[in-house]
Write a structure and sequence with these properties.
The complex is a heterodimer of chains A (246) and B (319). Chain A has 246 residues and is an alpha/beta fold. Chain A has helices spanning 37-54, 69-78, 93-105, 126-134, 187-193, 232-242, and strands spanning 2-6, 9-11, 19-20, 25-26, 33-35, 57-63, 82-86, 111-115, 138-148, 151-158, 161-168, 171-175, 198-201, 210-216, 225-226. Chain B has 2 domains: 2-172, HUPs (Rossmann fold, 3-Layer(aba) Sandwich), CATH 3.40.50; 195-318, TPP-binding domain (Rossmann fold), CATH 3.40.50.1220. The chains are: A alpha/beta (246), B alpha/beta (319). The structure holds flavin-adenine dinucleotide and adenosine monophosphate (AMP).
């Protein structure tokens, strides 16, 4: 089976966040970027497992500038067979989705996998957009996936539980925790990744529909109020009368 | 021009998040000088109640069918209603299903969209929607540049207030298109408010030492009427079910009150919880990072503090 895995790049969660150009842009200077954990640990690894079991090919795709090649090579080192980078720094999810759908339209992928969301902007919308553009079913928040021929059984997280569904391929899936276990690339994988094909394609869609035009910091916390462990009535009073949350 | 709100009705009931999106949609409609129409799909026992939260009309599609969720067929139906109603602002809940619909609807309706809005849009100049990003470390203001806009609203963004009167309900028969996806089973816990909707959350971490000690946490949660959650290592060790895991790789929540018991407050944990309105940390280590993020802190042994807190809340409830 041929699987397309969409991988994105995000700042490491522990990095300090700052803005520039009058708080209209995110400042990437000095930030460590990583492959989005949902894409790497869950979507990519499950795709590789499926191809290991059933044969086929895993293509990793990223919409982004040349600086992203480093995370694409990591996907190849973990086990993707080849990769595509669409050469544009996408300004919104629409641009990302339109370019991925544009690439996928002329190929015969049996499955398009994404992470459930990016951990920086938490959009959780790219997969739905690709599915609509290609008129395919979409299963989001998938925590388990079994494939049997053209039929897949998918467990997906919903509020307070799970839903199990059966879907006929091709389809689009976004992966959540539970789907697979993280794989650390080994030396052989890293060496092989250097020679695996990484095709660069020009962007077919460039104009965003949504613009991030201002960043603001959340209101600063006023500092913690410490309450004696012997006086829980005081904590309850504060929660009731001051914070008004109980 | 109008605002169309898709209201989810899991198991045939509208939940608080449903009332919330109707309130959001009707307040947006008021600021735009237009009307808010609520849309329900499949069984729902209280469709007219959307009027209480400001909808001037309810469209109830296929009121007697089970209407199993599929983002593809639901998108087709919602778009058709949006077009018929001339709706140019579509509002949804930021739930698993709501998010799966938001991106699809944006494409179908040639719209720009924002998922997880945390406030009403600013409409005085342009159309600006804000949301919390970078694990709560910043808020971004998005400008939606297209005539049609689709927004999913984060839970607990505003308090729904029932002040209107029941709205007229128009039932319509719009069979859902057959698709290649079939839901075969659904397992949800009964009677507990799911984490993303919970207003009160009691959470515990590795400081609990083992799963056998969770009784005091559950008792506190029961007395408060709170939902329980946990840190990631707790779920990873199988002490608690995975759906309780909050944080960067778990569920992101924004309750009014989050009580963290024996949780150190690692950045990846805070990422999922620091949009809570008020946070309380209980930890024996005064240097625990959680105290930097919390509003109220108790430095002490949780095995003594938690039962005392439960008793103090009982006293408040009885007073
Ligand atoms: C990429 C990545 C993603 C991650 N995602 C998440 C995530 O989504 N959610 C998450 O929670 N973590 C996540 N983590 C893990 C995170 O970094 C922390 O390791 C984790 O949150 C720690 O859990 P904890 O606070 O329960 O345990 P610990 O850090 O071990 O803290 C236990 C705390 O209990 C206190 N304690 C012990 N005994 C008592 C007592 N008797 N009374 C009172 N206090 C006591 C201790 O002082 C300590 O502060 C992630 C890590 C990585 C690298
Ligand atoms: N620039 C990108 N290139 C390739 N895939 C992406 C990109 N941005 C997002 N994705 C994929 O879409 C998923 C959801 O992203 P989002 O909708 O932005 O939360 C991610 O987990 C990735 O799998």
């Amino acid at each position: 089976m041929n699987i397309l895995v969409c991988i994105s790049k995000t700042p490491d969660t522990t990095s300090r966040i700052s803005f520039r150009a009058g708080d209209t842009e995110y400042n990437p200077d000095g930030i460590t970027f990583i492959m989005n954990p949902y894409d790497e640990w869950y979507a990519l690894v499950r795709a590789i497992e499926l191809v290991e079991q059933n044969g086929g090919n895993v293509t990793a795709i990223n919409v982004g500038p040349a600086a992203n090649d480093i995370i694409i090579r990591k996907a190849l080192a973990i086990g993707a067979n080849d990769a595509v980078r669409i050469d544009i720094d996408p300004a919104d999810a629409y641009v990302t989705a339109a370019n991925i759908a544009g690439h996928a339209r002329s190929k015969n992928y049996d499955l398009i996998m994404l992470g459930k969301e990016t951990i920086d902007y938490n959009g959780s919308e790219t997969g739905a957009m690709i599915a609509e553009m290609l008129d395919l079913p979409f299963v989001s928040y998938a925590s388990a996936l079994q494939v049997s021929g053209n039929m897949s059984t998918v467990t997906r997280d919903i509020e307070g539980g799970v839903e199990v569904c059966q879907v006929e391929g091709p389809f689009v899936l976004s992966a959540a925790k539970g789907m697979a276990e993280q794989r650390i690339p080994n030396m052989k994988g890293i060496m092989m990744a250097k020679t695996k094909p990484l095709a660069v394609e020009v962007a077919s869609v460039q104009n965003p529909r949504v613009k991030a035009n201002k960043y603001v910091l959340p209101p600063a916390k006023s500092g913690v109020k410490l309450i004696s462990p012997d006086n829980m009535d005081e904590l309850v009073r504060l929660l009731h009368e001051e914070a008004k949350v109980i | 021009m109008s605002v169309l709100v898709y209201v989810e009705s899991p198991k045939g009931h509208i939940k608080k998040t449903g009332n919330e999106v109707v309130s959001y949609g009707s307040r947006l409609a008021a600021s735009l000088g237009t009307q808010c129409v609520a849309l329900l799909i499949g069984k729902a026992d209280d469709a007219a109640s959307c009027g209480l939260y400001g909808a001037s009309k309810v469209i109830h599609a296929n009121p007697s069918s089970e209407a199993e969720f599929d983002s593809q067929s639901f998108t087709a139906l919602i778009s058709e209603v949006a077009q018929k109603e001339g709706a140019d602002h579509i509002i949804l809940s930021n739930t698993a299903n709501g998010k799966a619909l938001t991106g699809r609807l944006a494409i179908r309706l040639n719209a720009g969209d924002v998922t997880g809005a945390n406030a009403l849009p600013e409409t005085s100049s342009g159309f600006i929607v804000s949301k919390s990003v970078f694990s709560g470390k910043a808020v971004v203001k998005y400008s939606i540049e297209t005539p049609v806009k689709v927004i999913s609203v984060m839970g607990n963004t505003l308090q729904p207030q029932a002040s209107g009167s029941p709205a007229p309900v128009e039932t319509v028969d719009m069979p859902l298109k057959a698709t290649k996806l079939k839901v075969i089973e659904r397992k949800t816990s009964e009677g507990i408010v799911p984490l993303p909707e919970a207003e009160l959350v009691v959470s515990a971490g590795r400081g609990m030492k083992g799963p056998e000690n969770w009784g005091i946490v559950e008792e506190l949660a029961t007395v408060l009427g709170a939902t329980t959650s946990c840190s990631r290592p707790v779920a990873d060790s199988g002490w608690r079910p995975h759906h309780e895991h909050v944080g960067q790789t778990g569920v992101a929540i924004r309750p009014n009150l989050y009580i963290a018991i024996g949780i150190s407050g690692a950045i990846q944990h805070l990422a999922g919880v620091n949009n809570s309105k008020v946070m309380v940390a209980i930890n024996k280590d005064p240097e625990a990072p959680f105290f930097k993020a919390a509003d109220y802190g108790v430095v002490g042994d949780l095995f003594e503090v938690v039962p005392r807190l439960t008793e103090a809340i009982r006293r408040l409830k009885h007073s």
